[in-house]
Amino acid sequence: MAASLAADTIRLTSFARCAGCAAKLGATDLAEALGHLPSHADPRLLVGRESFDDAGVFLLREDLALVQTVDFFAPIVDDPYEFGQIAAANALSDVFAMGGEPITALAIVGFPAGKLPLSVLSDILRGGQDKVREAGASLVGGHTIIDEELKFGLSVTGQADPRRLLTNAAAHVGDVLVLTKPLGTGLLATAGKQGILDAPSRAALHASMCALNAVASRAALALDLRCATDVTGFGLFGHALHIARASNVTVRLDGRALPELPGARDLWRHGIRTGGAERNEKFAAGLADWSAARPADVALALDPQTSGGLLVAMPAGTVEQYLSAVPGSVVVGSVEQRGNAFIVLG
Q1: CB neighbours of 30 closer than 8 A, spacing ≥ 6?
Q2: Which architecture, in CATH terms, is 12-160?
Q3: Domain ranges of the chain
Q4: Does domain 168-345 have CATH number 3.30.460.80?
Q5: What's the whole-model pTM score?
Q6: Catalytic site residues?
Q7: If you write DSSP's letter for every residue of 79-118 in order, what string do you get?
Q8: pLDDT digits over 102-151, tens only?
């Protein structure tokens, strides 16, 4: 039987220092830290840290490359099996965002031994393993440590055709931007932590975070697209900024078109806030122009996502085919010539 984590027993989220979202080092701090590392050129490294892509890509031969990533975080839901699924889907997404297919995964666990029953760890690992299998990959091992803060995630290795990658650096003026999942996971997860999220909204949140980005990735490759990123901790603004910078373009977003999980904008209007959004705003300030946007739309674009969707750039002629192939996908903006701001939200 699955470990019971009802409110009157154990709250898994009480073992997370950051309420409501996966705590992630701010993009500004990360850029500063990486700026001090020497760069070692290797012609086999097709995609490295310079473009802030979702995973590294290393060439093995002309028609085969490795796609490698790692992601882990503290729980944002109380059900251990669901937490395992969400954390695994989030890590696997980085491979799909590059146009790759996951092959193997290694589990990464920090566990507060003596404070939680081992059945909780078993359920987390079972959730992660089930999601890895759903992605067509194998969970081949991992590493655990004793930690005061519960954490779980994966190091994932995938494979890709190096001639058909999805990267941040391939957006072109005139492209249309499509988002494949609704926004608001940070806002809803925080509301859930505070006990004010209704059951239908909670179900929608968990379903979105558990869903793989496999269909969205494969549909992009089938249409010969080349630019995508997954929207996670840096929010829509942060990840769109990575595309804009790497492609030297301006991304224009339509605030009213941004899809939301049930009630996300209303939760912000009623005072729900996350630390991740504050860090994302600090990073975006001066790089993005949201002066003409509604405040709730800005909040949605800054909201840190866990296991969010893909943001895909594509020629206008392929939009209808892509929308038909990827249920729930929505046109949210376009790509323009580089202007005064990397991102414009209207």
Answers
A1: none
A2: 2-Layer Sandwich (3.30)
A3: 12-160, 168-345
A4: no
A5: 0.91
A6: 21
A7: -HHHHHHHHHHHHHHHHHHTT-EEEEEEEEEEE-BTTB-H
A8: 999 999 999 999 999 999 999 999 999 999 999 999 999 999 999 999 99
